[in-house]
Amino acid sequence: MSGMNETNERNAPPENRKRKKRRAFMIFGIIVTVGLVAGYFFRGYTRVHIKTDDAFVEGAIHIISPRVPGTITTVHVANNQRVRAGDILAELDQDIYFQKVAESEAAAQTVSQMLIGLEAMVQAQKSRVSAARAALDGARSTRAELAAMVQVRKAEVRVRKAARDQALIDLKRAENLVSKEVISRDRFEKAKTGYDTAEASLDAALNLLQQAEAAVKVHRSSIQKARAALAAEEATLVKTEQAVKTQGERIKKQNAISEQARLYLSYTRISSPADGLVTRKSVEIGNQLKAGQPIMTVVSMKDAYVVANYKETRLHLIKPGQRVKLKLDAFPGKKFTGKVDSIMAGTGAAFSLFPPENASGNYVKVVQRIPVKIVFDDLEEAEPYLRVGMSVVPTILTQD
Fold it and tell me: Which CATH number does the domain 97-266 belong to among 1.10.10.10, 3.30.230.30, 1.10.287.950, 3.40.50.150?
C-alpha cells in the first residue's frame, strides 16, 4: 500500500503536492506556536507558583524519661493514645523517696530546735554583757569618786600643814618671849598645845590621804578586772552569735535538702509536657529505670509546621510572608493554606552528619536544596490530619 501511495504521490499533479506541503508547514507552525505559547505561560506560572515534592511535616517530639531512678509501678498510657499536658504517663515506686523526705524534714526540725536554743543563749549572753558593762561603769564611777576624795584629802593636808606651820611659828615666838619673861608660862603652854594639836591634825590628814591613794590603787585593779570580764562576755557573745549564723546556714542547707527530697518525690510521677500522641512506648510495670532513660515519646502537633526543601536556584523568588497552598499525600482531597515563615541559614547538606568535602578530588556541581519553614494558617483545622514526617506538596505563590 505504501508503495502505491508513493507511486500516486509521484504521479499526482504538482499543484496537489505543493498544497500538501503548505498544509504540513501550517500544521507544524501551529504546533510550534502553540508549544511556544504554552511554554511561555508555563514558565510564567512556575515563576509565581513554586512547587516541590521534597517537603515534610515537622512537630515537637518530646522524649519522655524519668528524672530519678526507680522501679515502674504504674503505666497509664498505651501507644498512639492521645494525652494532654500534665497527664500522668507512668509512676515510679515512691517508698524510698517518702523515706528521704521524712528523714530530711526530721533533720530540718532538729537544726531548727538547735537554732532556738542558740538564740536563747544569745539573749542570756547579752544580759551578761549588759551586767558586765554596768559593773565596769560602776567601777569607773567609784574610781572618779575615790580620785575626788584624794583631792579632798590633799586639800586637807595642805590646810593642816599650814595650820601646823603657823602653830610652829607661834610656838617659837612664845619660847622667845617666855625666855625674856615677856609672857607667862601659861601662854607658852597654850602655844605648845596648839602646835601639838596642829601636828596631830596634820598626821591624821596625811594618814587619810594615804588611805585614799591606797584605795585608788586598789580600785585600779578592780577596773581592770571589770574590763577583762566585759571583754570575755563580749567575746562569748560574738561566738554565740556566730554559732547562730552558722546554724542558720545549716538550716538553709537542710531546708534545701528537704526541698530537693520533695522535688525528687514529685519526679516519681512522670507527666506529659504537652498535648500530643504517645508513641514508641518501651516501658512496662516492674522495669528498673535509670535517670534519663527514654521510656516513650509524646509527639505534639500544636506547633506543627512544614519544612520544604527548595532548590537554591528558586530561592531568590521566596520571601517570608508569601502565601502557600498545601496538599497532603495521605489525604489528597484535603487542601490547606499557609505562609512562608523563614528560610534556613544553610543548606541541608551543610548541616548533615557528614557534610560534603568539595576541596578534594573531582568536583561535580550539584544544585543544593535549602529548607524553608512554612506554617499553617489554621493549624487547628489541619492538626487532626498531621503526623510527623508526613509528605506534603507545598506551592508558594510568589505573586498574589
Answer: 1.10.287.950
